[in-house]
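anyone seen this seq b4? input:
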Amino acid sequence: MTRPANADADFFGYADLLTDAERKRLAEIRDFLEREIKPLADDAWAAAEFPFAAIPKFAELGVAAMSCPEFSGTEPPRALFSGFVSMEMNRVDPSLAVAHGVHTGLAMGSIDGGGSDEQRARWLPDMVKWHKIGAFALTEPEGGSDVAQGMRTTARREGDDWVLDGAKRWIGNGTFADLVVVWARDVADDQVKGFVVKKGTPGFTTTKIEGKIALRSVQNADIELENVRVPEADRLQRITSFRDTAEVLRETRGGVAWQALGVSVRAYELARRYAVEREQFGKPIADFQLIQDLLVRMLGNVTASFGMVVRLAQLSDAGEASPERAALAKAFTTTRMREVVAWARELFGGNGIVLDYEIAKFFADAEAIYSFEGSREMNTLIVGKAITGHSAFV
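predicted toks r here
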């Protein structure tokens, strides 16, 4: 059957806003991900294991260099191009995209934005090459949405060292990371500070969180810190309060909106292909009105999400991004994603609950993306305060 001219998920042609060079590079990345990363992804997801064979492939792909062009010899990419790259990575496999994003966006982003010039030069070149892998430890067992005010992990200064005590939870890459950016509250001034803790530091223990139904390849860890000594040289020198932490999260929150788009795109693509190939009552199910209705609703959500994240990226490139805009994008696109994966799973019928048809993985992974980097409710309150001038946080 000839592929329809308008079968692409990018129905309004937002990729046309990229330059010719960007579109060429994006096509290369997409081909590499499909050829080199996807074959590793599905079995790893089913086994809840991280495919370490992906690490040299990530290094070969070179996307981490986009996060730190100063140490990679590349030109800084536009936010719009970076967004499309994130979308493609999540379209192929959200678990490996999240592991990649934790390393490049959260860990490297914290060091790049919060570290001194010496610290950046010491850590980032190895991280760009994936010789050192990073993690980001903010969330706590008793602190998710309220971690800014309720952080229980503490740091106290003892001479040239800091002593960290506490616990962290849901730390992606936490079981194997070489460098973990740990956020802790300074008992002297009650301000949140950032510390780079190296793997193997005494008192720093990690335990893999088992039994996840989403992002199963991501090795999330519970972390215990008991009298963990960190030299002052490993405290991120430009981090003075949680406001600095929030700046890292603002950047990554917009990135989650692109993640949600990638999941929505893949779910729509899988559903459209299944609809034209699957036959019932002697004809493809795409011939039925209710199936077309589901596909069009999915495409509408995908298209609306494209519009929001593309505009957010354009504003970022213009220096006009804001926490409120990133929060709205995250809340909107993840909600629309949840609808898309549910409709896609519905279209597959019973086949939608087995991994053979792939949609079940994306249906499950969407739940994690919907929840992290600020729940829909918390992001709603951020936007609500911006548009009313009244804070509804309690």
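The chain is about 50% helix and 15% strand. The mean pLDDT is 91. kinda curious what u guys think
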